[in-house]
Every structure is written in structure tokens, then in C-alpha cells.
């Protein structure tokens, strides 16, 4: 039986990856952080929390010594490093914490591999945020990086240290440069899920207005469940490498809002510009979306669109779910949750 370790199992990708690896017959160790009230809602929603081949272990990525013990005790031969302070907005307020977890955390895992068993295969969760300020369209593996947030800078360190351990010590370290990927399990601080949850609440009369920041930002949004399959394929390849996973389609935040309201049969009419822009219901004239500058970022990533050709060619990976279907799936899940639970 193959044994895998996933850091960050309480997150969106950790939950989907655990589900995938369990389906493939792996023994899975998933790490979570000690908090006063641990929350496993994602693996509960997937129904895998009591799976006999899943073991949850307490771990903090900032503790290098415990990374070594973790590899010694689990005997994992594949390590997926998904844990991170993953929210760009927070990284501007907590840049040092972000650097310690998201950047140096990857180094702790790689050092532990070097010490415990250099044959362990390592996946690093890199990000399109490393491309940041547009240098080329679409972005691919050899596009120059220009991160625009402490999160992007920390991830760039983690990416290069993975490449460096591959080249210096022959460690099988692969880096997946994943463009934004969403799902009903996405955290509510991220824009897509904030939108789908708010649209569900507006439809059910639990919220009046959705407040957002920059509506012009363009993102390449895919479905998370398909992207974790790409992570797994990277570690089954003959050689470690760097791969972009993306859909090659980009849309604005405004377009995603329009799609989400369309999923509950509300037609949005956009009026005004910049800070005064509003989204109104075409039928009733009621303002349902407005700008709140508190959601603007000190520096913005304006345009992300990825070229996943290498992943298709070398891994046979390609995305299937359209943005329309992804958005609808998320709105429907949020309608169900909001209907079921009054305090949700
Ligand atoms: P989430 O924010 O949903 O999950 C992050 C996970 O990291 C959580 O389980 C969190 O635990 C854990 N974590 C945070 N800090 C620590 C720490 N100090 N020690 C141990 N664990 C910690 O992210 P996603 O699942 O969406 O993303 C997975 C990875 O992929 C992340 O590294 C992210 O940066 C990266 N990525 C994501 C993209 C996306 O669009 N989703 C795009 C590209 C890259 P807790 O629940 O306790 O907070
Ligand atoms: P990111 O690409 O990792 O930063 O993912 P997010 O989902 O956090 O943000 C995607 C884009 O949406 C960014 O360009 C944000 O500036 C923009 N955005 C606009 N309004 C909001 C908002 O209210 N919350 C968040 N999280 N992002 C917003």
C-alpha cells in the first residue's frame, strides 16, 4: 500500500486530494494545526473523516524538527505540501507570518526529506500569483515571475527552493504552478466563494448587498477537484518538473458576479464606474452589488491566464469543468447550506 502525507488537509485542496488518494488505495496521513476548536468541515462534507486508511496528525509547518519526526513516523513516500497562509489579502497585514509558513515552511519539508529519506517524492503547491504583474500572455512555465504580494514572494521562495533541492540533491521535487481553482469547499474569504455565498444569501433574503473590491481583475478559474488530480500525476511522472495547471480562459470578477446571479435567475445591470460602480437587478432596479474600497489591495494582480499545454503533453492532464458549471455548482451548494442552517 502506498503511503502519502498531505500537509494542510483541513484546506480545500487537502480535502479533495485526500479523497482522491484514498480512492486510489493509498494510506493517507493528513496534517492539521492545533487550534482551540479544530474544524474538519471539508473532509466531513466529503464523507472521508472516518475512512480507515486516513489518519489525521497534528503538525505546524513552521516547526522544522517536527517535520523530520513526521516523515520518520509515517513512512510516507509521497509528500504533498499544500499547507500555507494562502490568502493574498492577509499576506499584506501579516507578511512575516506568511514568509515563515508559506515560504520557509517548504524548506522545512525539503530538509526533512533530505535527512530522513531522499527518495521521498515531494509536491510543492506553487501559484500563478508568482507571475503577478503581467510579463506575457498566456503565462507558462518559462514566463518571468514578478510577484505582487508578500504571499506571491513567499511562494516564489518555496518554488525556487524546490527547484534547488531537485538540482542540488537529486530530490524528486515537483512544483505545480496552479492558477486559481475553486469549488464548493473554497474558503469564504476568496472572491468566488464570497460571491456565491452572498448570492445565495441575497436570493434567500438573508443579505441585502454584496460588497466587493476590484471588479476588473481577471482570473483563470478552474475546478479544484480536477487540479488535485494534476498534483498526483506530477508525482507519478518519470522525472520531477514544473507544470502549469490552468484552463486558458480568463474572466473578470464582474463577469463571475454576473454568472453567479444568473444561476439564481437574477439579471445584473452594471452602472457607474470605479468606486461608484453598482450592480443592480435589471427587473427591480435594486442595488445588489457595490464597491467597498476596503477590499482593494495595495498592489494588484490584474490579469492571469495560464497555458496548460505542458501538463497536457507530459501528464495527459486537462481541465473539463466550464466556469459556468463551476459557478452554478458553487451557488447551488451555498443555497443548500444557507437553507439548511439559519446561522450559516
Ligand atoms: P486553504 O487556505 O484552503 O488551505 C491551507 C491549509 O494550510 C489549511 O489546511 C491550513 O490549516 C494549513 N495551514 C496554514 N498554516 C499552517 C501552518 N503554519 N502549519 C500547518 N498547516 C497550516 O488553501 P487551498 O487548499 O486552496 O490551497 C492549497 C495550497 O495551494 C496552498 O498552499 C495555496 O497557497 C496553494 N494554491 C492555491 C490555489 C487556489 O486557487 N486554491 C492556487 C495556487 C496555489 P488551517 O485550516 O488550520 O488554517
Ligand atoms: P487571489 O487571486 O489569490 O488573490 O484570489 P482572491 O479570490 O482572493 O482574489 C481574486 C481577485 O478578486 C483579486 O484581484 C482581488 O483583488 C479581487 N477581489 C475583488 N473584490 C474582492 C473581495 O471582496 N475579496 C477578495 N478576496 N478578492 C476580491
TrEMBL record:
Q: Which organism is it from?
A: Luteibacter rhizovicinus
Broadest EC class assigned to this enzyme: lyase
| GO BP terms, alphabetized | 'de novo' GDP-L-fucose biosynthetic process
Q: Which domain of life is it from?
A: Bacteria
Gene this protein is translated from? gmd
Annotated catalysed reactions: GDP-alpha-D-mannose = GDP-4-dehydro-alpha-D-rhamnose + H2O
Output this protein's name.
GDP-mannose 4,6-dehydratase
Q: What is its EC number?
A: 4.2.1.47
Recall the GO molecular function terms of this protein's record. GDP-mannose 4,6-dehydratase activity; NADP+ binding
Supply the alphabetized keyword list.
Lyase, NADP
Q: Which InterPro entries match?
A: GDP_Man_deHydtase (IPR006368), NAD(P)-bd_dom (IPR016040), NAD(P)-bd_dom_sf (IPR036291)
Q: What does this protein do?
A: Catalyzes the conversion of GDP-D-mannose to GDP-4-dehydro-6-deoxy-D-mannose.
Q: Where is the NAD(P)-binding domain positioned along the sequence?
A: 5-330
PANTHER family to which the protein is assigned, alphabetical: GDP-MANNOSE 4,6 DEHYDRATASE (PTHR43715:SF1), GDP-MANNOSE 4,6-DEHYDRATASE (PTHR43715)
List the HAMAP family hit by this protein, alphabetically: GDP_Man_dehydratase
Family to which the UniProt record says this protein belongs: Belongs to the NAD(P)-dependent epimerase/dehydratase family. GDP-mannose 4,6-dehydratase subfamily.
Q: Which cofactor does it need?
A: NADP(+)
Amino acid at each position: 500500500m502506498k503511503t502519502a502525507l498531505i500537509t494542510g488537509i483541513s484546506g480545500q485542496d487537502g480535502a479533495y486530494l485526500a479523497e482522491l488518494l484514498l480512492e486510489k488505495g493509498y494510506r493517507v496521513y493528513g496534517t492539521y494545526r492545533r487550534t482551540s476548536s479544530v474544524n474538519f468541515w471539508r473532509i466531513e462534507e466529503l464523507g472521508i473523516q472516518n475512512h480507515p486508511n486516513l489518519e489525521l496528525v497534528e503538525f505546524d509547518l513552521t516547526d522544522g524538527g517536527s517535520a523530520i519526526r513526521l516523515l520518520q513516523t509515517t513512512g510516507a513516500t509521497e509528500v504533498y505540501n499544500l499547507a500555507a497562509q494562502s490568502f493574498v489579502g492577509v499576506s499584506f497585514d501579516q507578511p512575516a507570518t506568511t514568509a515563515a509558513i508559506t515560504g520557509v515552511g517548504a524548506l522545512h519539508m525539503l530538509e526533512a526529506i533530505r535527512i530522513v529519506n531522499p527518495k521521498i517524492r515531494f509536491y510543492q503547491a506553487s501559484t500563478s500569483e508568482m507571475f503577478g504583474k503581467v510579463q506575457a500572455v498566456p503565462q507558462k512555465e518559462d514566463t518571468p515571475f514578478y510577484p505582487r504580494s508578500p504571499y506571491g514572494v513567499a511562494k516564489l521562495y518555496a518554488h525556487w527552493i524546490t527547484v534547488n533541492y531537485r538540482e542540488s540533491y537529486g530530490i524528486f521535487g515537483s512544483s505545480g504552478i496552479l492558477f486559481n481553482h475553486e469549488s464548493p469547499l473554497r474558503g469564504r474569504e476568496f472572491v468566488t466563494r464570497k460571491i456565491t455565498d452572498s448570492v445565495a444569501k441575497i436570493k434567500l433574503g438573508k443579505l441585502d448587498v454584496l460588497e466587493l473590491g476590484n471588479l476588473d481583475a481577471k482570473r483563470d478559474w478552474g475546478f479544484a477537484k480536477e487540479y488535485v488530480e494534476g498534483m498526483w500525476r506530477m508525482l507519478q511522472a518519470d522525472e520531477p518538473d514544473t507544470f502549469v495547471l490552468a484552463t486558458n480562459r480568463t474572466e473578470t470578477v464582474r463577469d463571475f458576479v454576473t454568472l453567479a446571479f444568473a444561476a439564481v435567475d437574477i439579471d445584473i445591470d452594471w452602472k457607474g464606474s470605479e468606486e461608484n460602480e453598482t450592480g443592480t437587478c435589471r427587473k427591480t432596479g435594486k442595488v445588489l452589488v457595490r464597491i467597498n474600497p476596503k477590499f482593494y489591495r495595495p498592489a494588484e494582480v490584474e490579469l492571469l491566464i495560464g497555458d496548460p499545454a505542458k501538463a497536457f503533453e507530459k501528464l495527459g492532464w486537462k481541465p473539463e469543468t466550464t466556469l459556468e458549471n463551476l459557478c452554478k455548482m458553487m451557488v447551488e451548494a451555498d443555497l443548500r447550506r444557507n437553507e439548511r442552517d439559519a446561522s450559516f
